[in-house]
Design a protein that fits this description.
heterotrimer, A mainly alpha (about 800), B mainly alpha (about 170), C mainly alpha (about 100), A: about 800 residues, mainly alpha, 4 domains, two-stranded antiparallel ribbon, 29 helices, C: about 100 residues, Helix Hairpins, about 0% strand
Chain lengths: ~800, ~170, ~100
């Protein structure tokens, strides 16, 4: 190794087989995917055994790696930077550029690896029962396994290109799984909407990666010997002080747009609730606990880029914290008007992702990552509980008002796990959500973002309230509809009191499709508890919803802050002396450990703070900015707990009045009171964002183009043809007819007509004549080139 | 250093061949006989091969002769025969709107001439550049540009299958 | 020799090709015009290759020749199919793409 570093006896890093070979983890499900595709249908369990076995394998490997990482961290002093385990091979190269593939294993990637492998295992076990007898059972498991491979690959990614690979595989699998029951048009539409909305954001990922590559490549090649795609290189470059502010800001904003799309942040969150059209295990795995945190993960992964690009901690407001804060409140408000239990959970997911983003935007890196960790368990549990209800009690319905109620007596296990997860989600002590969510709110306030701390507390109140409402409607009160044993198609006798029905157009999207796929064997049964393949994953997840918070229980003192010790990269200056040759240039060794193993021992003990992120390191590089950690105070925790309990109690009282006692003063209030009614309609129409996207933006872009094309076709192309053919005398008449009559008069008269005819407007230019297309193509290219030439000369 | 008279000879060769090529290209797009067009295209392609030699690219020139004049032209002639185009003069080879091509082509040419004069002016080609050997080209193809080579292999496979599927009688 | 000699030759051949693509009705002749365009690009690539003293242009010229061969193969297969269905190779009769 050409890298030399100052090593002292205490900073020798341990490693281990699992840690060195963590790149195998995504390969296991990738291999299993092909096994399922090729041999799945012939296997006794129709391919699900491959999926489950691969996920168990990935879990074992991730656990082993995590254990060895903890050994590695424990082996060095508290203040020393712990070098990630990085490996890189040449994936492909083309004309001088080589693109690497490998692994970048540190605390963050191991946290997500364990979560993804663990929840994938449980969800696959659950799915064997939930989708039993489905006609595309094998394909379902193939997609689920491929998704896990993509997500694990994204998490271990050594560079941005590898990360994009995993990111896009996830997007594809999301599309396939949402549209799993594609025979129903609503499901295909939801799948397309999810795909296109996230693709809109993904443009930002490509743009951001390119911008950062071209800005950073020279620096990283010179100082670290890695390419500008490398995550490690980008982190060090961003904190080196040599990065141009314009490039890093543009890069960070572009990357964040991708995160907005993928993680369902405002204003691109609209796809996530629609994605609930997919099977419930998919919602549980992809659209609550793992795939949608990919955006949060990306921000956390190249955090220095965002830290410098968005000026986090430098000002009182920045792009990330605003988007996160807005998302928390608007999504929580939408959860109140949903009658579909899965949509409540979907908006809750959006809102919780907003917490994570807000935390990252306010410098609360560790609490945000911790919230990914805890949220994954309790939200997956909530979704699986909702699936359990629809599977066994409500005859595949997800409608809380029509087909649920009073289920606590029939489904004790589902009820208990739901309650535990709900308390964790609301952030009640000592459930896991308390430790992570309260930490975010606390740190956001501590770092000077007071307004966003208030938003976080408002969000906590709303979360407690809508979850109480959902719990009440589902498990308390009297059974209704299918939960009361009625057959699904026999009408809904109990919903006469329901003033919200008029807005419930989407309520049946998900389960109607489910019905049509031939497992009607539950039709004659009343509600009952689900089988062990469903309840055991629920119990495991609920246990973790209680216990996972203890991994970083700040209230109990520093000894409990394990995640801080294991996961948070330490903001220390690392010496890098000597730069090695670009790897693989002579072909003798493609396998190069690119990590400099140097670690500088801290000079002082106690609450040492480095200058990383504040000013450029004089020698060496920083890999992480120095962040604040709010000291825990019981008074602040008591405030937020009080808010949560207030939300629960108020919501409970309202629910009892509204849904059970049918208090005349409250029922139908939104119909009688105009202000409330307008507010309700505003929420029920999801802030009219879908209208904005589909009716306003798409039309305002597409229609003028089609109108312009129509005009050119009618007046210019045909005009030239006719004019030259008939002769110059006619040109005068043509000018009269077209310019005078059509253009001048048309501008006056035709504004309305043009809008009317716009639907068919693009049609005539599509003449079907190849030569005309060629003429347009080359003509446009020539004019464009001419403009460029004129500008440049 | 190459002698000045050799440079003069190269220039004469270039202009002679270029004139033939331009004339041939004009004939390809204006002749009223499909077979004549194909034969004029042979002239242009052979001229291009000669220009490649002047540009010190022997291997590409040989490939041009083998692939284009040898294989592609035969394909064109077969295509002409199989579609039973009239071997003689055919007045219906052009579109009704054929004159639309003139302004587009002229505009494009004007743009290119302006851009080229502005960008390269009187810049001379190096006279002492070594001839690129076949070995160097193959090192490029199977080294840094291996990935496009794979992609190209795939394109050729797809084209073969596609051509068979399209032209098959069933 | 000037760089511009070759570039101008390429430009002229390119524009003649463009004219042919637009003006010709017979599909075989359109394909021939496309060959002109591809060859003009090859001349440019090799001229730049000589100017810059690199071999990249040669590599890509070869790739273009291979792509052109594939394109002619598929193109003529399509022309054949078109003739079989319509007894004509006039592009103006192909109006399935009309919107």
């Amino acid at each position: 190794m050409l890298v030399q570093a100052t090593e002292t006896a205490e900073t020798v890093l341990t490693s281990g087989w699992f840690l060195d070979h963590a790149y195998i983890i995504p390969l296991i499900p990738a291999v299993a995917f092909f096994l399922i595709i090729f041999f799945g249908k012939r296997m006794p369990m129709k391919g699900s055994e491959f999926g489950i076995a691969s996920m168990v394998g990935a879990l074992v490997f991730s656990g082993g790696a995590a254990y060895q990482w903890i050994q590695r961290v424990n082996g060095v002093s508290e203040e020393a930077f712990v070098e990630p385990v990085i490996k890189s091979w040449t994936w492909w190269q083309n004309g001088g550029f080589s693109f690497g593939i490998g692994q970048h294993i540190d605390g963050l990637s191991l946290t997500i690896l364990v979560v993804v492998a663990f929840i994938s295992t449980l969800v696959q076990i659950y799915s064997t029962e939930y989708l039993h007898g489905d006609r595309r059972y094998t394909h379902f498991f193939a997609s689920l396994t491929l998704f896990s491979a993509g997500m694990l690959n994204m998490v271990v990614a050594e560079n941005m290109i590898q990360l994009i690979l995993g990111w896009e595989i996830m997007g594809l699998c999301s599309f396939m799984l949402i549209g799993h029951w594609w025979e129903d048009g609503a499901n295909s539409r939801a799948a397309l909407k999810a795909f296109f909305t996230t693709r809109t954001g993904d443009i930002g990922l490509l743009v951001g990666t390119s911008v950062l590559f071209f800005a950073a490549n020279d620096w990283t090649q010179k100082n670290l010997g890695v390419s500008g795609f490398s995550i490690r290189g980008l982190s060090a470059w961003a904190l080196s002080g040599t990065a141009g502010q314009a490039a890093i800001t543009v890069g960070a904003v572009a990357l964040f747009i991708a995160c907005i799309g993928k993680s369902g942040q405002f204003p691109l969150h609209t796809w996530l609730p629609d994605a609930m059209a997919g099977p419930t295990p998919v919602s549980s795995l992809l659209h609550s606990s793992t795939m949608v945190v990919a955006g949060v993960f990306l921000v956390a992964r190249v955090y220095p880029v965002f830290f410098e690009g968005m000026n986090i901690l430098g000002t009182n407001v920045n792009f990330i914290v605003v988007i996160g804060g807005v998302t928390i409140v608007i999504a929580a408000a939408l959860a109140f008007v949903q009658t579909d239990i899965k949509k409540v959970l979907a908006y809750s997911t959006v809102s919780q992702l907003g917490y994570m983003m807000m935390g990252l935007g306010a410098g609360a890196w560790l609490p945000a990552v911790f919230h990914i960790f805890t949220h994954a368990f309790f939200k997956a549990c909530l979704f699986l509980a909702a699936g359990s209800i629809s599977h066994s009690a409500s005859h595949h319905s997800f409608d809380m008002k029509k087909d649920m109620g009073g289920l606590r007596k029939f489904m004790p296990i589902t009820f208990t796990t739901w309650i535990i997860s709900t308390l964790a989600l609301c952030g009640v002590f000592p459930f896991s959500g308390f430790f992570s969510k309260d930490e975010i709110i606390d740190n956001v306030g501590y770092s000077g973002y007071s307004l966003f701390m208030v938003i976080g507390l408002v969000g906590a109140f709303l979360t407690a309230a809508y979850m109480t409402r959902a719990t009440y409607l589902t498990f308390f009160g009297s059974p209704r509809g299918a939960a009361a044993g009625e057959h699904h198609d026999e009408g809904h006798g109990h919903d006469a009191h329901d003033s919200h029905d008029a807005h419930d157009a989407h309520g049946h999207d998900a389960h109607d499709a489910h019905d049509s796929h031939g497992h009607d064997d539950h039709a004659s049964h009343g509600p009952r508890e689900s089988g062990p393949l469903i309840t055991i994953p629920l119990i495991i997840l609920a246990t973790l919803a209680i216990g996972s918070g203890l991994l970083n229980a700040v209230p109990f003192g520093e000894n409990w802050e394990n995640l801080k010790k294991w996961v948070e990269p330490r903001a220390e200056v690392v010496n890098v002396t000597g730069v090695k040759e670009p790897s693989g240039s002579h072909g003798e060794s493609r396998f190069v450990l690119t990590a400099p193993s140097g670690v500088v021992a801290a000079e002082e003990g106690g609450h040492h703070k480095s200058d990383c992120g504040k000013k450029a390191p004089e020698s060496g590089v920083c890999y992480a900015p120095q962040l604040n950690h709010a000291p825990f105070k019981w008074s602040k925790a008591a405030l937020s707990l009080g808010i949560v309990f207030a939300g629960m109690i108020i919501s409970w009282l309202l629910c009892v009045q509204l849904y059970t006692r049918k208090n005349k003063a409250l029922v139908g209030l939104t119909q009688r009171n105009k202000v409330l009614g307008a507010g309700y309609a505003f929420l029920a129409n999801k802030y009219y964002l879908d209208h904005l996207y589909e009716k306003v933006i798409v039309r305002s872009i597409a229609y003028p183009i089609s109108r312009g094309a129509y005009w050119i076709n009618q007046n210019v192309l045909d005009g030239i043809v006719n004019g030259a053919g008939i002769g110059s005398r006619k040109i005068a008449g043509w000018v009269y007819r077209n310019v005078d009559q059509r253009v001048v008069d048309g501008a006056v008269n035709g504004a309305g007509n043009a809008a009317q005819g716009a639907g068919g407007a693009l049609q005539p230019v599509q003449s079907g004549k190849v030569n005309q297309y060629g003429a347009l193509l080359f003509g446009a290219a020539a004019i464009g080139a001419l403009v460029l030439v004129i500008i440049n000369t | 250093m190459i002698a000045a008279d050799l440079l003069v000879a190269q220039n004469i060769g270039f202009y002679l061949i270029a004139a033939i090529m331009v004339f041939g290209a004009f004939s390809v797009v204006t002749t009223r006989n499909v077979v004549h067009a194909a034969l004029w295209l042979v002239v242009v392609l052979a001229g291009a091969a000669a220009q490649y030699i002047l540009l010190a690219a022997e291997f590409v020139a040989v490939t041009q002769v083998l692939v284009y004049i040898g294989a592609v032209m035969v394909l064109f002639l077969f295509g002409t025969m199989l579609t039973r185009a009239r071997i003689g003069t055919d007045s219906e080879l052009n579109n009704k709107n054929w004159f639309m091509g003139i302004p587009v082509a002229v505009l494009l040419l004007a743009t290119l001439i302006i851009a080229l004069n502005d960008g390269f002016g009187d810049e001379q080609l190096p006279t002492d550049a070594p001839v690129v050997t076949t070995q160097q080209v193959s090192d490029q193809i199977f080294g840094p540009y291996l990935l496009p080579f794979w992609a190209l292999s795939f394109v050729l496979l797809a084209a073969t299958i596609g051509a068979i599927v399209l032209a098959r009688r069933d | 020799m000037l760089v511009n000699q070759f570039l101008m030759l390429g430009a002229i051949l390119f524009c003649i090709g463009v004219y042919g693509v637009i003006a010709r009705k017979n599909a075989v002749l359109v394909l021939m015009s496309i060959e002109l365009i591809l060859n003009s690009v090859n001349i440019n690539l090799l001229a730049f290759s000589l100017r810059n003293g690199s071999t990249d242009g040669h590599t890509f010229a070869l790739y273009i020749i291979a792509v052109a061969a594939a394109e002619v193969g598929v193109g003529l297969a399509m022309v054949l199919l078109m003739y079989r269905n319509r007894r004509s190779v006039g592009l103006d009769e192909l109006s399935e793409m009309k919107g």
